[in-house]
Amino acid sequence: MAAPAAADEIEDTLNAALEAYKAGDVDTAKEETDYAATLLAQQKAAGLEAFLPEPLEGWTRAEASSNAGAAGMFGGGLMASADYSNGTQSVSVQLMAENQLVAAMGGMLTNPAMMAQMGKVERINRQMVVVTNDGEVQSLVDNRVLVQISGSAPAETKLDFFRAIDLKGLKDF
User: What mean pLDDT do residues 48-61 have?
Assistant: First the structure.
């Protein structure tokens, strides 16, 4: 993953957009503005990565990744993910925000009756969580950040990974 853009690069790009606009070069102004928006989204996506949980005891984490707009097949937006292993089992934690999939799943993951149809509903730190019939853990934090935890580990281990997420911080993201 590339490092987030420095604030100066964003400012320089916005200044270039303004200069192009003042000069009547609307195409360049739009191009510069779009690029600045991309840099800002990458910076925000890198912030989402910070909410991926640390490995549980006995587990290791592969390098985490984040991206802005890379979740194209999920409607764009922000995504951060990490893979964990204990040598025999694996867990993948994915956080998605500001995209169409999150909005679409919002109706399901905020309705306890619909969640119950998906699997077993639990509440962790006042947050509704569903363990789907195939053992995946899903939750919609603050109606805008989708947490999905999958892998070969048992559901209780996936729930432990969910418990390790800073939910209060994620709500403020």
Answer: 95
